[in-house]
# Entry
Amino acid sequence: MTDVLDVALRLVVVFALFLVLPLLVGQTEHKVMAHMQGRLGPMYAGGFHGWAQLVADGVKFAQKEDVVPADADRRVFQLAPAVALLPYLLVLLVIPVGPGEGAVGQAVDAGIFFALAVMGVSVLGSLMAGWASANKFSLLGGLRTAAQLLAYELPMLLAAASVAMAAGTVSLTGILDAFEWWWLPWQITGALVFFVSGLAELQRPPFDMPVADSEIIFGAYTEYTGLRFALFLLAEYAGIVVLCGLTTVLFLGGWHGPWGTEGLGWVWTLLKTAVLAFVVIWLRVSYPRLREDQLQKLAWTTLVPLALAQIALTGIVKVVIQ
Amino acid sequence: MTLAAPGFLSPTGVEIAFLLVGLVTFGAAVLTVTTRQLVHAALWLVVALGGLAVEYLLLTAEFIAWVQVLIYVGSVVVLLLFGLMLTRAPIGRSPDADSGNRPVALAVAVVATGALLWVVVDAFRTAWIDLEGPARGTTAVSGESLFRHWVLPFEALSVLLLAALVGAIVLSRRNAPDEPDATDMPNAPDAPEGARPVGPDGRGGASRRGAGGAGGATEVK
# Structure
């Protein structure tokens, strides 16, 4: 009985985090972007500095009509938002927030592979949406999404493989147990490659060619309205949370910190994740969008060689210290 | 791995789940080849490959299961959908995609299935996996058997994939010299504002990079 209760409790906690953290990132994005651009951002909803803006947005989305275009492929069109969103919930389940068995939703033996595999699945949601909408902009968006995923999946995997080599395990909790502070400079190239590839996979600026609102009108999501559109947006912000959490766990030492790792490990994890999420928002405000050929060039001629160099370095250091 | 053969009459929960997932996988596989909508075929393929990953999981081969999802669902199907969208993927039926080779294809499929079934059944007739004991498909166990017992086939496969990669690059570069310059790349005047001009090494066109992409996916496999 206690087992069932334990599992249920973990699922509830992870689900609550899944609902709250993306909204938190979204609200932060509103405010941070506004202040970086010399505006105030939302100020009225909820009273204090517009803290309830995204709740209000959610209510608004829920009230809107759910339109399916006449020529669209109905079932695929309606299924796509769920396919885009659910993988991130599953990934959140395996990210350890603190030391020990108790601080992870479900410890998975091949944690890195699980996380990266499931994150890749969520891109299928965008592809389905892009095709099923029967809209040229959507189809273009879907195509660009696919091209981008194929280009950036490889460097992301290679960078993650480097950490797995360093730790001698592919389990996320195992990697954190093996972490030492000097891994930070050792794996810094891999960390950058991983983070940049992850941004590209999430289609965040400056890699937002697939959803470029000013030229293909939000790409695969052009035809979506109401709650389904909100689900796609939620998937984007859940993706930011998952990417920052994974980068924290793989490269920044997760719950390790200068002090207080025993009781306050989860604070370190959340803090590092929050700083990375801030960087994601910062990049959106400061960099122009990359063109399609620049996107491909960056992946194949910069990130892949860098990731391979990181793997070579990891191997050499690993052999030397043994 | 060879235990006393358990009976068939009192299936455990895992066995029942295995059978049910197998049925779903089989159904999805059949739909993949019988549906008349091209993209639906690719999406049913996702279900079939995902079902296969669940089967691996039920057999405690966790590592293989996630690699299956990563490579097949995450990369191969995306590549497939990319190809479909790039060429021809109408919404609704595509009758022109049917060919007269259906009976031949069916015969080949039946023969291949028969051969595979025969080989697998013959090889593993008396082998049983003990699901209760320590997991036999963890990353550590898979890695050890791969790099201790099967290291030669593994390396041979790597060389094969490398050959495929080189071949793909050679094939896609063959047309490069007689192509007129810069037809398939954005010209500087058309480029969106803020975009940097493409340097001399930026030419080369999408075909070469596309091949690199396909080759890269192959290499991961």
Observations:
- Residues 68-321 of chain A form one domain.
- The CA atoms of residues 57 and 230 of chain A lie 9 Å apart.
